[in-house]
Amino acid sequence: MTDREIIDLYRNGQQEQAFNHIVEAYTERLYWHVRRFLCSHDDTNDLLQDIFIKVWAALPSFRGEAQLYTWLYRIATNEVLNFLRRQKVRAMMSLDSVSNILSKKIDEDPYFNGDEIQRVLHKAMNKLPEKQRIVFSLRYFDEMKYEDISEITGTSTGALKASYHHAYNKIKKDIEECF
Questions:
Q1: For domain 1-97, which CATH number applies: 1.10.1740.10, 1.10.3720.10, 1.10.565.10, 3.40.190.170?
Q2: What is the pLDDT of residues 126-140, one digit of tens each?
Q3: Which listed residue, 31, 61, 127, 160, has the most CB atoms within 10 A of its CB?
């Protein structure tokens, strides 16, 4: 079912059915989007539930000015950033950095099934500034166009291209240092 059909279904009074289609169509994509930031299966599952609760609550106000998937990614990205900010406060209390905490989660997560280069890639991503991590993740993993990332982040495509370039170079350097 297309995004347009899902929205039409919602507007025709079949809200639960439309929401179920959203969950069915986007759970896996949003899971991996969130997981790349949180580095933990359990944290990702918990946050994904919160994201879909926010989506359900916000659906009545969806005006269709944005594409459904960019709207969903914007909600997911905002929730991830809020989660990471809370983690940052906890990290300051424990005198550790969020990057170190997330790197430990990668090493300790029994569900991480990537090879060593993927582990290094995710650890390098954790070192990036927030905006660069978002742009890199959406562009590299989700293969989104800069125009769609712009809709999600509210940032110009030129700035996004620059952020991606800087992120790419930092990650490349980290990977080269490890191998």
A1: 1.10.1740.10
A2: 899 989 999 999 999
A3: 160
